[in-house]
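Allow me, if you will, to draw on your knowledge of protein folds for a short while. I have a record of one protein: its chain in single-letter code and its fold written as C-alpha coordinates. Kindly check, if you would, that the fold set down in the C-alpha coordinates agrees with what the sequence suggests. Thank you for your consideration; the sequence and its C-alpha coordinates are set out here:
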Amino acid sequence: MNINKSALVERFLKYVVIDTTSYPTSKTFPSSDSQLDFGDLMVKECAELGLHDVKKDSYGYVTATLPSNIEDSSNVPTVAFLAHMDTSHAASGKDVKPNIIKNYDGNDIDLNGTIKLSTEEFPHIKQYVGEDIIVTDGTTLLGADNKAGIAEILTAMEYLIENPQIKHGTIRIGFTPDEEIGRGVDHFDVKAFGADFGYTIDGGEIGELENESFNAAGATIEITGKSVHPGTAKGVLVNAGLIAAELVSMFPKNETPETTEGYEGFYFLTDMTAGIEHAKLNFILRDHDKVKLEERKEFTQAVVEKMNIVYNDRIKLTISDQYQNMREIIDQHPHVMELAKEAMKKAGVEPNIKPIRGGTDGSRLSFMGLPCPNIFTGGHNFHGPFEYIPIDSMVKACEVIVNICELNKQ
Protein backbone atom coordinates (compact mmCIF):
# COMPACT_ATOMS: atom_id res chain seq x y z
CA MET A 1 0.00 0.00 0.00
CA ASN A 2 1.51 3.29 -1.08
CA ILE A 3 0.17 5.85 1.42
CA ASN A 4 1.10 9.41 0.46
CA LYS A 5 3.58 10.01 3.29
CA SER A 6 4.42 13.59 2.27
CA ALA A 7 0.74 14.57 2.22
CA LEU A 8 0.24 12.93 5.61
CA VAL A 9 3.13 14.83 7.18
CA GLU A 10 2.12 18.09 5.50
CA ARG A 11 -1.39 17.79 6.95
CA PHE A 12 -0.12 16.99 10.40
CA LEU A 13 2.37 19.87 10.49
CA LYS A 14 -0.31 22.28 9.27
CA TYR A 15 -2.75 21.18 11.97
CA VAL A 16 -0.44 21.17 15.00
CA VAL A 17 0.61 24.81 14.65
CA ILE A 18 -3.03 25.86 15.17
CA ASP A 19 -3.82 26.34 18.85
CA THR A 20 -6.98 24.39 19.76
CA THR A 21 -6.52 24.07 23.52
CA SER A 22 -9.69 23.17 25.44
CA TYR A 23 -10.34 24.72 28.86
CA PRO A 24 -12.18 22.94 31.69
CA THR A 25 -13.25 26.19 33.38
CA SER A 26 -14.97 27.51 30.26
CA LYS A 27 -18.78 27.70 30.34
CA THR A 28 -19.14 27.48 26.54
CA PHE A 29 -19.26 24.53 24.17
CA PRO A 30 -16.82 24.16 22.67
CA SER A 31 -14.65 25.65 25.37
CA SER A 32 -12.52 27.73 22.96
CA ASP A 33 -13.38 29.63 19.77
CA SER A 34 -10.20 28.34 18.15
CA GLN A 35 -11.79 24.91 17.93
CA LEU A 36 -14.63 26.34 15.87
CA ASP A 37 -12.08 27.96 13.57
CA PHE A 38 -10.23 24.67 13.25
CA GLY A 39 -13.54 23.01 12.45
CA ASP A 40 -13.95 25.41 9.53
CA LEU A 41 -10.56 24.26 8.25
CA MET A 42 -11.67 20.63 8.60
CA VAL A 43 -14.79 21.34 6.55
CA LYS A 44 -12.59 22.86 3.83
CA GLU A 45 -10.15 19.93 3.93
CA CYS A 46 -12.92 17.33 3.74
CA ALA A 47 -14.65 19.09 0.86
CA GLU A 48 -11.41 19.47 -1.09
CA LEU A 49 -10.76 15.73 -0.69
CA GLY A 50 -14.12 14.98 -2.29
CA LEU A 51 -15.97 13.73 0.77
CA HIS A 52 -19.76 14.12 0.78
CA ASP A 53 -22.26 15.57 3.26
CA VAL A 54 -19.58 17.71 4.87
CA LYS A 55 -21.04 19.66 7.80
CA LYS A 56 -20.10 21.60 10.90
CA ASP A 57 -22.98 22.04 13.32
CA SER A 58 -23.54 24.74 15.91
CA TYR A 59 -21.60 22.78 18.53
CA GLY A 60 -18.54 22.52 16.31
CA TYR A 61 -18.85 18.84 15.34
CA VAL A 62 -17.52 18.17 11.85
CA THR A 63 -18.95 15.18 9.98
CA ALA A 64 -18.50 13.84 6.47
CA THR A 65 -19.17 10.75 4.36
CA LEU A 66 -17.25 8.68 1.87
CA PRO A 67 -20.05 6.90 -0.01
CA SER A 68 -19.95 3.19 -0.73
CA ASN A 69 -18.46 2.13 -4.06
CA ILE A 70 -20.03 -1.33 -3.88
CA GLU A 71 -22.94 -1.88 -6.27
CA ASP A 72 -25.15 -3.35 -3.56
CA SER A 73 -23.97 -2.30 -0.11
CA SER A 74 -27.29 -2.74 1.66
CA ASN A 75 -25.84 -5.49 3.86
CA VAL A 76 -22.52 -3.74 4.52
CA PRO A 77 -22.44 -1.98 7.90
CA THR A 78 -21.43 1.68 8.01
CA VAL A 79 -18.11 2.15 9.77
CA ALA A 80 -16.97 5.42 11.35
CA PHE A 81 -13.61 6.92 12.21
CA LEU A 82 -13.40 9.67 14.81
CA ALA A 83 -10.74 11.98 16.22
CA HIS A 84 -10.81 15.06 18.41
CA MET A 85 -9.74 18.56 17.42
CA ASP A 86 -8.72 19.92 20.81
CA THR A 87 -5.43 19.54 22.64
CA SER A 88 -4.84 19.23 26.37
CA HIS A 89 -4.59 22.28 28.64
CA ALA A 90 -1.90 20.40 30.61
CA ALA A 91 0.76 22.05 28.43
CA SER A 92 0.72 24.96 26.02
CA GLY A 93 -0.65 24.31 22.55
CA LYS A 94 0.20 27.81 21.33
CA ASP A 95 3.09 28.54 18.96
CA VAL A 96 3.88 24.86 18.43
CA LYS A 97 7.13 24.51 16.49
CA PRO A 98 7.48 20.90 15.34
CA ASN A 99 10.81 19.53 14.18
CA ILE A 100 11.53 16.43 12.12
CA ILE A 101 14.47 14.33 13.27
CA LYS A 102 15.66 12.51 10.16
CA ASN A 103 17.04 8.98 10.48
CA TYR A 104 17.02 9.00 14.29
CA ASP A 105 20.36 7.72 15.60
CA GLY A 106 19.26 6.35 18.98
CA ASN A 107 20.78 9.12 21.13
CA ASP A 108 19.19 11.84 23.26
CA ILE A 109 17.39 14.45 21.17
CA ASP A 110 18.27 18.08 21.96
CA LEU A 111 14.94 19.92 21.73
CA ASN A 112 16.06 23.50 22.32
CA GLY A 113 19.57 23.63 23.79
CA THR A 114 18.22 23.26 27.33
CA ILE A 115 15.67 20.46 27.27
CA LYS A 116 16.44 16.99 25.95
CA LEU A 117 14.29 14.04 25.01
CA SER A 118 16.31 11.59 27.06
CA THR A 119 16.67 7.94 26.13
CA GLU A 120 17.21 7.15 29.81
CA GLU A 121 13.91 8.72 30.80
CA PHE A 122 12.04 7.61 27.65
CA PRO A 123 13.79 4.40 26.54
CA HIS A 124 10.97 3.41 24.18
CA ILE A 125 12.21 5.96 21.64
CA LYS A 126 15.15 3.65 20.85
CA GLN A 127 12.82 1.28 19.01
CA TYR A 128 12.59 3.93 16.27
CA VAL A 129 16.27 4.08 15.35
CA GLY A 130 16.58 4.79 11.63
CA GLU A 131 13.12 6.32 11.37
CA ASP A 132 12.03 9.95 10.96
CA ILE A 133 10.46 11.31 14.15
CA ILE A 134 8.48 14.53 14.71
CA VAL A 135 9.25 16.24 18.03
CA THR A 136 8.52 19.54 19.78
CA ASP A 137 10.90 22.42 20.49
CA GLY A 138 10.59 21.65 24.21
CA THR A 139 8.28 24.56 25.05
CA THR A 140 4.86 23.16 24.06
CA LEU A 141 3.10 19.92 23.49
CA LEU A 142 3.12 18.59 19.92
CA GLY A 143 -0.57 17.91 19.39
CA ALA A 144 -0.36 14.39 18.01
CA ASP A 145 -3.14 13.82 20.53
CA ASN A 146 -5.22 14.03 18.45
CA LYS A 147 -4.27 15.88 15.28
CA ALA A 148 -2.30 12.83 14.20
CA GLY A 149 -5.60 10.95 14.20
CA ILE A 150 -7.24 13.61 12.06
CA ALA A 151 -4.37 13.64 9.55
CA GLU A 152 -4.36 9.84 9.40
CA ILE A 153 -8.11 9.57 8.82
CA LEU A 154 -8.08 12.15 6.03
CA THR A 155 -5.01 10.63 4.38
CA ALA A 156 -6.66 7.20 4.46
CA MET A 157 -9.81 8.65 2.88
CA GLU A 158 -7.65 10.30 0.21
CA TYR A 159 -6.08 6.92 -0.55
CA LEU A 160 -9.49 5.24 -0.92
CA ILE A 161 -10.74 8.02 -3.21
CA GLU A 162 -7.64 7.74 -5.40
CA ASN A 163 -7.86 3.94 -5.51
CA PRO A 164 -11.49 3.13 -6.40
CA GLN A 165 -10.55 -0.50 -7.09
CA ILE A 166 -10.60 -0.93 -3.29
CA LYS A 167 -14.23 -1.73 -2.60
CA HIS A 168 -15.80 -0.47 0.62
CA GLY A 169 -19.14 0.33 2.17
CA THR A 170 -20.24 3.73 3.46
CA ILE A 171 -17.70 5.41 5.71
CA ARG A 172 -18.53 8.16 8.18
CA ILE A 173 -16.00 10.67 9.56
CA GLY A 174 -16.39 12.64 12.80
CA PHE A 175 -14.18 15.29 14.38
CA THR A 176 -15.14 16.39 17.88
CA PRO A 177 -14.19 19.29 20.19
CA ASP A 178 -13.43 19.24 23.93
CA GLU A 179 -12.50 15.57 24.29
CA GLU A 180 -9.58 16.44 26.55
CA ILE A 181 -11.92 17.94 29.16
CA GLY A 182 -14.44 15.10 29.02
CA ARG A 183 -17.15 16.92 27.07
CA GLY A 184 -16.36 15.66 23.59
CA VAL A 185 -19.67 13.96 22.86
CA ASP A 186 -21.98 15.95 25.16
CA HIS A 187 -24.02 17.07 22.14
CA PHE A 188 -23.10 14.39 19.59
CA ASP A 189 -26.14 12.93 17.79
CA VAL A 190 -25.27 9.26 17.34
CA LYS A 191 -28.53 8.45 15.57
CA ALA A 192 -28.11 11.22 13.01
CA PHE A 193 -24.47 10.25 12.50
CA GLY A 194 -25.73 6.96 11.16
CA ALA A 195 -22.83 4.57 11.74
CA ASP A 196 -23.15 0.98 12.96
CA PHE A 197 -19.82 0.96 14.77
CA GLY A 198 -16.67 3.04 14.81
CA TYR A 199 -13.11 3.55 15.93
CA THR A 200 -11.48 6.51 17.62
CA ILE A 201 -8.00 7.02 16.13
CA ASP A 202 -6.67 8.36 19.40
CA GLY A 203 -4.27 5.80 20.83
CA GLY A 204 -0.54 5.83 21.46
CA GLU A 205 2.29 3.76 20.07
CA ILE A 206 2.00 1.56 17.01
CA GLY A 207 -0.10 -1.56 17.55
CA GLU A 208 -2.24 -0.26 20.40
CA LEU A 209 -5.83 -1.49 20.22
CA GLU A 210 -7.94 -0.66 23.23
CA ASN A 211 -11.35 -2.07 24.00
CA GLU A 212 -11.64 -0.99 27.62
CA SER A 213 -11.24 2.22 29.54
CA PHE A 214 -11.43 3.42 33.09
CA ASN A 215 -14.68 3.98 34.90
CA ALA A 216 -14.35 7.62 35.83
CA ALA A 217 -15.67 10.13 38.32
CA GLY A 218 -14.69 13.62 39.38
CA ALA A 219 -14.66 14.98 42.93
CA THR A 220 -14.64 18.66 43.88
CA ILE A 221 -13.94 19.57 47.50
CA GLU A 222 -14.54 23.11 48.77
CA ILE A 223 -13.39 24.29 52.18
CA THR A 224 -14.59 27.43 53.97
CA GLY A 225 -12.19 28.99 56.47
CA LYS A 226 -12.31 32.03 58.73
CA SER A 227 -9.83 34.89 58.49
CA VAL A 228 -8.83 37.18 61.36
CA HIS A 229 -5.66 39.08 62.18
CA PRO A 230 -2.91 36.53 63.02
CA GLY A 231 -2.00 38.52 66.12
CA THR A 232 -5.37 37.70 67.68
CA ALA A 233 -6.06 34.47 65.84
CA LYS A 234 -5.83 31.90 68.64
CA GLY A 235 -9.00 29.84 68.83
CA VAL A 236 -10.68 31.88 66.09
CA LEU A 237 -8.79 31.68 62.78
CA VAL A 238 -9.59 28.67 60.59
CA ASN A 239 -7.06 28.23 57.77
CA ALA A 240 -8.74 26.58 54.78
CA GLY A 241 -5.35 26.03 53.12
CA LEU A 242 -4.05 23.98 56.06
CA ILE A 243 -7.25 21.95 56.15
CA ALA A 244 -6.76 21.22 52.46
CA ALA A 245 -3.22 20.02 53.07
CA GLU A 246 -4.39 17.76 55.90
CA LEU A 247 -7.19 16.38 53.74
CA VAL A 248 -4.83 15.53 50.86
CA SER A 249 -2.54 13.68 53.26
CA MET A 250 -5.38 11.29 54.09
CA PHE A 251 -5.46 9.80 50.59
CA PRO A 252 -3.25 6.74 49.94
CA LYS A 253 0.13 7.79 48.57
CA ASN A 254 0.56 4.55 46.62
CA GLU A 255 -2.67 4.99 44.64
CA THR A 256 -1.79 7.93 42.41
CA PRO A 257 -1.10 8.00 38.65
CA GLU A 258 2.66 8.07 39.20
CA THR A 259 2.57 4.90 41.34
CA THR A 260 0.11 2.73 39.37
CA GLU A 261 -0.08 0.93 36.04
CA GLY A 262 -2.16 -1.59 34.07
CA TYR A 263 -5.47 -2.27 35.79
CA GLU A 264 -4.57 -0.36 38.96
CA GLY A 265 -6.86 2.57 39.69
CA PHE A 266 -5.99 5.84 41.39
CA TYR A 267 -6.92 9.09 43.10
CA PHE A 268 -5.48 12.10 41.24
CA LEU A 269 -5.39 15.62 42.65
CA THR A 270 -5.45 17.59 39.41
CA ASP A 271 -5.44 21.13 40.81
CA MET A 272 -5.87 23.07 44.02
CA THR A 273 -6.33 26.69 45.03
CA ALA A 274 -5.93 27.50 48.69
CA GLY A 275 -6.04 30.51 50.96
CA ILE A 276 -7.17 31.24 54.50
CA GLU A 277 -10.87 31.79 53.74
CA HIS A 278 -11.34 29.34 50.90
CA ALA A 279 -9.75 26.29 49.32
CA LYS A 280 -10.85 24.20 46.39
CA LEU A 281 -9.48 20.82 45.32
CA ASN A 282 -10.31 18.84 42.19
CA PHE A 283 -9.71 15.10 42.12
CA ILE A 284 -10.35 12.53 39.44
CA LEU A 285 -11.14 8.99 40.54
CA ARG A 286 -10.35 6.13 38.15
CA ASP A 287 -10.71 2.35 38.11
CA HIS A 288 -11.36 -0.28 35.44
CA ASP A 289 -13.53 -2.18 37.92
CA LYS A 290 -16.92 -0.54 38.45
CA VAL A 291 -17.21 -1.82 42.03
CA LYS A 292 -13.76 -0.49 42.91
CA LEU A 293 -14.67 2.94 41.52
CA GLU A 294 -17.68 2.99 43.84
CA GLU A 295 -15.32 2.13 46.71
CA ARG A 296 -13.10 5.08 45.75
CA LYS A 297 -16.10 7.39 45.78
CA GLU A 298 -17.10 6.04 49.19
CA PHE A 299 -13.55 6.50 50.52
CA THR A 300 -13.52 10.12 49.36
CA GLN A 301 -16.90 10.69 51.04
CA ALA A 302 -15.59 9.11 54.25
CA VAL A 303 -12.51 11.36 54.30
CA VAL A 304 -14.68 14.46 54.00
CA GLU A 305 -17.11 13.25 56.68
CA LYS A 306 -14.23 12.55 59.07
CA MET A 307 -12.75 16.00 58.47
CA ASN A 308 -16.13 17.66 58.90
CA ILE A 309 -16.41 16.20 62.41
CA VAL A 310 -13.17 17.94 63.32
CA TYR A 311 -13.84 21.20 61.46
CA ASN A 312 -17.57 21.69 62.05
CA ASP A 313 -18.92 20.96 58.55
CA ARG A 314 -16.71 23.44 56.72
CA ILE A 315 -16.07 21.02 53.84
CA LYS A 316 -18.39 20.39 50.88
CA LEU A 317 -17.95 17.46 48.49
CA THR A 318 -19.46 17.08 45.03
CA ILE A 319 -18.92 13.84 43.09
CA SER A 320 -19.97 13.44 39.47
CA ASP A 321 -19.73 10.40 37.21
CA GLN A 322 -17.88 11.04 33.93
CA TYR A 323 -17.71 7.87 31.82
CA GLN A 324 -17.83 4.08 32.05
CA ASN A 325 -15.60 1.22 30.96
CA MET A 326 -16.49 0.73 27.30
CA ARG A 327 -15.62 -2.99 27.39
CA GLU A 328 -19.07 -3.65 28.81
CA ILE A 329 -20.50 -2.64 25.40
CA ILE A 330 -17.72 -3.66 23.03
CA ASP A 331 -17.74 -7.25 24.32
CA GLN A 332 -21.30 -7.43 22.97
CA HIS A 333 -19.95 -6.69 19.47
CA PRO A 334 -16.88 -8.95 19.11
CA HIS A 335 -16.68 -8.48 15.32
CA VAL A 336 -15.62 -4.86 15.85
CA MET A 337 -12.43 -5.92 17.62
CA GLU A 338 -11.84 -8.87 15.27
CA LEU A 339 -12.04 -6.56 12.27
CA ALA A 340 -9.47 -4.20 13.77
CA LYS A 341 -7.12 -7.05 14.62
CA GLU A 342 -7.36 -8.47 11.09
CA ALA A 343 -6.75 -5.01 9.60
CA MET A 344 -3.64 -4.52 11.74
CA LYS A 345 -2.18 -7.91 10.86
CA LYS A 346 -2.79 -7.22 7.17
CA ALA A 347 -0.75 -4.02 7.62
CA GLY A 348 2.06 -5.98 9.27
CA VAL A 349 1.25 -4.58 12.71
CA GLU A 350 0.94 -6.88 15.72
CA PRO A 351 -2.13 -5.89 17.78
CA ASN A 352 -1.28 -4.88 21.34
CA ILE A 353 -4.61 -5.14 23.14
CA LYS A 354 -4.51 -3.24 26.41
CA PRO A 355 -6.75 -1.15 28.66
CA ILE A 356 -6.76 2.61 28.28
CA ARG A 357 -5.54 4.26 31.45
CA GLY A 358 -7.96 7.06 30.73
CA GLY A 359 -10.89 7.49 28.41
CA THR A 360 -11.71 8.52 24.87
CA ASP A 361 -14.80 9.81 23.14
CA GLY A 362 -15.34 6.13 22.37
CA SER A 363 -15.84 5.39 26.07
CA ARG A 364 -19.05 7.39 26.03
CA LEU A 365 -20.04 6.76 22.41
CA SER A 366 -20.11 3.03 23.12
CA PHE A 367 -22.80 3.58 25.75
CA MET A 368 -24.62 5.97 23.40
CA GLY A 369 -25.10 3.24 20.79
CA LEU A 370 -21.88 3.40 18.78
CA PRO A 371 -19.43 0.62 19.80
CA CYS A 372 -16.10 2.35 19.45
CA PRO A 373 -12.68 0.84 20.36
CA ASN A 374 -9.53 2.92 20.15
CA ILE A 375 -6.72 2.49 17.59
CA PHE A 376 -3.15 3.81 17.74
CA THR A 377 -1.97 7.06 16.15
CA GLY A 378 1.70 6.25 16.79
CA GLY A 379 2.33 9.04 19.28
CA HIS A 380 4.18 8.96 22.61
CA ASN A 381 4.36 11.16 25.73
CA PHE A 382 1.10 13.02 25.10
CA HIS A 383 0.21 16.25 26.95
CA GLY A 384 3.71 17.59 27.37
CA PRO A 385 6.87 18.93 25.70
CA PHE A 386 8.41 15.46 25.33
CA GLU A 387 5.65 14.36 22.97
CA TYR A 388 6.83 12.78 19.71
CA ILE A 389 5.53 10.66 16.86
CA PRO A 390 7.39 8.45 14.34
CA ILE A 391 6.21 9.11 10.79
CA ASP A 392 6.27 5.42 9.83
CA SER A 393 3.84 4.69 12.67
CA MET A 394 1.47 7.31 11.26
CA VAL A 395 1.65 5.63 7.86
CA LYS A 396 0.76 2.29 9.44
CA ALA A 397 -2.26 3.87 11.14
CA CYS A 398 -3.46 5.00 7.70
CA GLU A 399 -2.99 1.48 6.34
CA VAL A 400 -5.03 0.02 9.20
CA ILE A 401 -7.89 2.44 8.50
CA VAL A 402 -7.88 1.53 4.80
CA ASN A 403 -7.79 -2.18 5.64
CA ILE A 404 -10.77 -1.87 8.00
CA CYS A 405 -12.77 -0.22 5.24
CA GLU A 406 -11.83 -2.90 2.71
CA LEU A 407 -12.39 -5.85 5.05
CA ASN A 408 -15.73 -4.55 6.35
CA LYS A 409 -17.98 -6.45 3.96
CA GLN A 410 -20.60 -8.15 6.09
Observations:
- The chain has a mean pLDDT of 96.
- The CA atoms of residues 172 and 361 lie 16 Å apart.
- The longest strand covers residues 215-224.
- The radius of gyration is 23 Å.
